[in-house]
Write a structure and sequence with these properties.
The complex is a heterodimer of chains A (about 150) and B (about 800).
Chain A (H helix, E strand, L loop, with lengths): L1 E8 L6 H12 L5 E14 L3 H12 L5 E5 L11 E7 L6 H12 L5 E14 L3 H12 L5 E7 L1
Chain B lengths: L1 E3 L15 E3 L6 H10 L6 H13 L6 H10 L2 H4 L1 H4 L1 E6 L2 E6 L1 H17 L5 E3 L6 E4 L4 E9 L1 H6 L1 H17 L6 E11 L16 H19 L3 E8 L8 E11 L12 E6 L9 H4 L4 E2 L2 H4 L9 H16 L5 E4 L4 H9 L5 E4 L12 H6 L5 E6 L1 H13 L4 E7 L4 E6 L2 E7 H6 L5 E6 L16 H8 L8 H4 L10 E3 L2 E2 L5 E2 L3 E3 L8 E7 L9 H19 L6 E8 L6 H21 L3 E7 L3 E4 L2 E4 L3 E10 L16 E5 L10 H5 L12 H16 L5 E4 L4 H13 L2 E5 L12 H6 L6 E5 L4 H7 L5 E8 L3 E5 L7 E4 H9 L5
Parallel strand pairs in B: 3-19, 8-9, 12-27, 14-17, 25-26, 32-35
Antiparallel strand pairs in B: 1-2, 3-4, 5-6, 6-7, 7-10, 8-10, 11-15, 11-16, 13-15, 14-16, 17-18, 20-23, 21-22, 23-24, 24-29, 25-29, 27-28, 30-33, 30-34, 31-33, 32-34, 35-36
Helix pairs in contact in B: 6-20, 8-9, 9-12, 17-26, 19-20, 19-22, 20-22, 23-26
The chains are: A alpha+beta (about 150), B alpha+beta (about 800).
């Protein structure tokens, strides 16, 4: 079973990575992007209970001062109507963050996790075509040598 | 061409799964080259034939494991065949034969300096270990290494830079019996970050993306390792479009009684740290190929991803084991993986590796892949049997994976077994001494660029603003702020200095032994555009710049060591190799005169990118990194003006030397009057400046480099939040230059702008008796920078706020 935890910057705070992406999109001569937020995705394989997932999110993955998290996939106003791009490492590429996550889960005394993986989810708003979002994904977000990506309209 | 494994005489009669025997003894020349290309061996015909002959004498064909091991060990990356080879050199029509350029110039300079120093020689171990070692204090030696990680960074900027810094940290750790890393430094060369997307050739990542990825990679690894990144620079030229340059350096401290290392017969070969995966296969040979628009697909195996946490744990356990004297020898697992690390350690005695023992990240790796993988965070140690138990317990306690993968044997052979069957057996003498030397042609002819035709503008304020805003001169604060400069608590002068901590410091100063006043001034020099005119003066200028940066903060010029990092195009093209000869010869001439020994270095060739039948070659690029001893860090000075009323001096003469300058570049010219170096006079100036700074006569000091005097004074003013008035007629050399723009933007070497406090001017002048040194102006209250002749309208008149804005904005990415 896969437990998914998504961590994101609080909506009232600046998402510096998102703002940087908007500037880079302008450099691509793509107009129309008005908002970008980054969400860090962690997927844990194994038998992890709801309470344990909450603990992992709160005590390991999330900085409570600037971030919030959900167990599962975030929904609601943050993502509604936006383009969602998810970038993840190809199979076999070393993912040091997932290795540290496994160690952190064990340090919390939580047994049952057998593997972890990470991905980056980008929420993109504005008047953008699928072709625009695909170009943004290829040129700015995913490196096809080591990563792959998916695009969805929420 | 390949068939199942049947290694006669040395192996069992049954084949080993995943091992192939490659028919080289019966292959034609064309087939040999085809084997080399198909397997990315980067070996030429001469080398392939030498290998074929060796195995013919052995009456068998090599396994793929043996062939790959030879290719890695004989790679340009490991053996420096170009630098150590034979060169037929022709310069402006005159020809000569050069036998081993490296020995004649870089090593030759150090040898000559050490000879002159005699009993006062302060070099400890140079060109013989993973990093150079010089004396520091009674307890520690200083260890320094700078590497490049260019090709991987072109394909995956984050991972490439990440593993670049991770790799160079392991060099001091693998020097002597292990040095403690105390700082990192980084220098990058990219194409312009505003390069038009529509003009980008296919297969190339946009330079802004490369820049951001590289910076993030260095930041994440360096910061997580708890090592301060204290010095660096960024340079821009569109010829770096397909081949960005990523220089990564690490300095460390090595206890004086831990310099000598030697594996002993019977010692266990122990792999410590990360596991072996398919990442980084063929890194050493990949670094010897030209990139093209297919490289991202064909060479994806060369991309590695680093894990700083694993390396940090390995570092900590090794330093503990070093103190307990648990091992005899150590080296890092870098290019070529186990094949190079074990092969080099056991060069004199012989090794036997049991490859199946190597801990793997995942199954399915072929034996040659295990041997060659350049997976990160791995060190190889030779542990005597009596210490093995203690060593393994220590690793277990610290949660570091350590595995015995073989023994040092005394056989003088490189033997690899897989499940008890021999899959490689090569004489160490052939592995390390068999690579053939062959001559290469090299040519250098002095170019003749068009000289500028524009008239001197009456008002140079806008020109200064333009030069300050060029990417090469502009503030690098956006990058610098991402690095931790303070961890380990030894930073004295950080990269950004001044009233608001945003001025461009000349060199960083660290005091790595807390509580001691002794420190190191760490700087760098690079003069890319001068190479378009003459690589000799490019190299001379790079050494001069590194030196004056170190001296400007209070580093001792008589105790400065330097490192060379040549990053060049394809050395099989005679013009590229001719540039190398010119640059190397300057390295010898200037280093010997300055008394600054080269203690370590690295070269990287084939930095060319082929697309649509065109080749983009990088400009020949030489980075000189310097580290100068500082006896008392409390006496160091920064570059920002400190107080109104203080005198402004210019030390060093300005010549009409705008060839390759930022000013000419901003006007679309290269020119020919490249800045030269007068090494005898320069040495005297450096000595005098060191005396003036350590004598407490200097309040601020800044070297003149990109953008010349006008930029140097402007930077000192806005870094200090103070105005300044400069009389151009008093600038040493002004009487020989008839244009104001040439005087203010010339990039002549060995010049400093110095702030001298009230009551100290006479003593300061005395220090520079007989040398070019004049008071040119005064630091002023307010925010105006005024530069000009007293009898005319100012050539430059601007508020420091306006100048600073122009300087800070371009690279705020």
């Amino acid at each position: 079973m896969t437990t998914r935890i998504e961590v994101y910057i609080k909506e009232n705070l600046v998402d510096a990575a998102g703002d940087g992406l908007l500037k880079d999109i302008e450099d691509l001569n793509i107009t129309g992007a008005v908002g970008a937020r980054f969400i860090r995705v962690t997927e844990i394989e194994g038998r992890i209970g709801k309470k344990q997932a909450q603990r992992i999110g709160a005590e390991l993955l999330c900085d409570p001062v600037s971030q919030e998290f959900v167990v599962g996939t975030i929904s609601g106003p943050l993502t509604k109507g936006a383009w969602i791009i998810e970038v993840r490492y190809n199979h076999g590429v070393t993912d040091p963050v997932s290795e540290s996550t496994m160690k952190g889960i064990a340090d919390l005394g939580i047994a049952g996790a057998t593997a972890a993986g990470t991905a980056t989810k980008v929420v993109l708003r504005g008047r953008l075509s699928k072709a625009d979002v695909d170009l943004i994904s290829r040129k700015l977000l995913a490196n096809n040598i080591i990563q792959s990506y998916t695009i969805e309209k929420n | 061409m390949a068939r199942k494994f049947t290694l006669k005489k040395t192996a069992a009669d049954k084949g080993v799964a995943g091992v192939e025997v490659v028919d080289v003894t019966g292959a034609t020349d064309a087939e040999l080259m085809s084997i080399s290309k198909e397997r990315t061996l980067s070996l030429n015909l001469l080398e392939m034939k030498k290998i074929a002959r060796y195995f013919k004498n052995k009456k068998r064909n090599p396994t793929d494991v043996e062939l790959e091991t030879l290719a890695q060990t004989w790679s340009e990356h490991c053996k420096h065949k170009v630098f150590n080879g034979i060169i037929h050199y022709t310069e402006n029509g005159e020809s000569e034969l050069i036998d081993n350029l490296f020995k004649q110039t870089i090593v030759g300079a150090t040898k000559e300096i050490r000879r002159k120093l005699g009993r006062n020689d302060w070099c400890v171990s140079v060109f013989s270990d993973n990093a150079g070692v010089v004396e520091f204090d009674d307890d520690f030696h200083f260890v320094f290494k700078v590497e490049t990680h260019n090709h991987p960074s072109a394909l995956d900027p984050y991972g490439g830079a990440n593993t670049g810094i991770g790799g160079v940290i392991r060099d001091p750790l693998g020097t002597g019996l292990g040095a403690t890393p105390v700082f990192n430094n980084n220098v990058f060369c990219f194409a312009r970050p505003d390069f038009p997307h529509e003009d980008l050739p296919r297969g190339i990542l946009h330079p802004k993306r490369i820049l951001k990825g590289v910076v993030a990679g260095v930041r994440d690894y360096g910061n997580r390792m708890g090592i301060p990144t204290i010095n660096g620079s960024l340079h821009f030229d569109d010829r770096y479009l397909g081949n960005p340059i990523v220089y990564c350096g690490t300095g460390g401290l090595l206890p004086v009684d831990r310099v000598v290392k030697r594996p002993r017969k019977g010692d266990h070969i122990v792999a410590v740290g990360g596991r072996t995966g398919r990442d980084g296969i063929h890194g050493a040979t990949f670094s010897s190929v030209e990139l093209d628009d297919k490289s991202e697909v064909t060479s994806s195996g060369a991309v590695q991803i680093g894990n700083a946490i694993v390396e940090k744990k390995a570092l900590d356990v090794i330093l503990q084991a070093r103190e307990l004297k648990l091992y005899d020898c150590i080296t890092d697992c870098g290019a070529g993986g186990f094949s190079s690390a074990v092969g080099e350690m056991g060069e004199r005695i012989g090794t036997e590796v049991n490859l199946e023992k190597a801990p793997l990240k995942y199954g399915g790796l072929l034996p040659w892949e295990i041997l060659l993988s350049e997976a990160q965070e791995r060190m190889v140690l030779s542990v005597p049997p009596r210490n093995l138990k203690t060593f393994m317990k220590l690793c277990e306690r610290e949660d570091v994976e350590a595995t015995v993968i073989g023994r040092f044997t005394g056989s003088k052979r490189f033997v690899v077994k897989y499940n008890r069957k021999i899959i490689a057996d090569i004489d160490m003498s052939f592995l390390h001494g068999g690579v053939p030397r062959y001559p290469r042609p090299a040519v250098w002819d002095a170019p003749d660029h068009p000289e500028p035709t524009f008239a001197c503008p009456k008002n140079l304020t806008n020109r200064l603003i333009k030069v300050l805003g060029t990417f090469n001169v502009a503030s690098k604060e956006w990058v610098v702020r991402q690095y931790d400069h303070e961890v380990q608590a030894g930073s004295v002068l950080k990269p950004l200095v001044g009233a608001q901590d945003d001025g461009p410091g000349d060199a960083a100063v660290v005091t790595p032994v807390l509580g001691s006043k002794r420190g190191l001034a760490v700087s760098n020099g690079i003069a890319i555009r001068y190479g378009d005119i003459d690589p000799y003066w490019m190299a001379a200028s790079a050494i001069d710049e590194a030196m004056r940066n170190a001296v400007a903060v209070g580093g001792n010029p008589a105790r400065t060591c330097i490192l060379d990092n040549f990053v060049w195009g394809n050395p099989d093209k005679p013009d590229r190799l001719g540039d190398l000869v010119r640059a190397s010869r300057a390295c010898y001439d200037i280093a010997v005169e300055y008394g600054t020994p080269f203690i370590s270095g690295k070269d990287s060739f084939n930095n060319e990118f082929a697309v649509d039948g065109k080749t983009i070659a990088i400009p020949p690029t030489l980075l000189i990194s310097a580290a100068a001893r500082v006896n008392d860090v409390r006496k160091c000075v920064s570059m920002d003006f400190k107080e109104a009323g203080d005198a402004i001096f210019v030390v060093g003469e300005t010549f009409d030397e705008l060839g390759g300058s930022q000013y000419y570049q901003s006007r679309g010219f290269i020119g020919n009057n490249v800045p030269k170096v007068d090494p005898k006079k320069a040495k005297k100036i450096f000595r005098a400046m060191y005396g003036a700074i350590t004598g407490g006569l200097v309040r601020a000091c800044h070297d003149c480099s990109d953008g010349g005097l006008a930029v140097a004074v402007a930077e000192m003013a806005f870094a200090g939040g103070l105005g300044a008035m400069v009389d151009t007629q008093k600038i040493p050399g002004a009487n020989k230059i008839d244009r104001m723009d040439n005087l203010l933007f010339s990039e002549s070497n060995t010049r400093f702008v110095v702030e001298v406090g009230k009551g100290k001017e006479t003593k300061f002048r005395e220090r520079f008796k007989g040398l070019p040194c004049k008071k040119v102006g005064v630091v002023e209250e307010g925010d105006m920078l005024i530069i000009g002749a007293p009898d005319a309208d100012p050539a430059i008149k601007a508020s420091i706020g306006k100048l600073k804005k122009a300087w800070k904005e371009p690279l705020a990415l």
